[in-house]
């Protein structure tokens, strides 16, 4: 995946105007709140969107998180 293409696609996602209004005025001015699907994967969708500009990597992030949690749990 090419990052420039991904970030162009992220601009196509609908802006969340309510969330945008909640960004503090002293935050960087280049922040834009985007809507992600609220299907139980919204955290991973948002992280994927932030990292690469698209939500298509949410499954990979979710699996990597599960593996990390499982590995840490077995150490106890």
Automatic annotation (TrEMBL):
Protein's recorded name: OTU domain-containing protein
Taxonomic lineage per UniProt?
Eukaryota, Metazoa, Cnidaria, Anthozoa, Hexacorallia
PROSITE patterns per the UniProt record, alphabetical: OTU (PS50802)
Where is the chain membrane-spanning? none
Residues covered by the OTU domain: 31-76
Record-linked InterPro entries: OTU_dom, Papain-like_cys_pep_sf
Organism, scientific name:
Desmophyllum pertusum
This protein's source sits in the domain of life called Eukaryota
């Amino acid at each position: 995946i090419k990052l420039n293409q991904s970030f162009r696609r992220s601009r196509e996602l609908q802006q969340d105007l309510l969330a945008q209004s909640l960004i503090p005025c002293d935050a960087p001015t280049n922040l834009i709140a985007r809507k992600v699907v609220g299907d139980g994967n919204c955290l991973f969708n948002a992280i994927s969107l932030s990292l690469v500009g698209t939500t298509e990597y949410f499954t990979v992030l979710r699996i990597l998180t599960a593996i990390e949690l499982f590995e840490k749990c077995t150490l106890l």
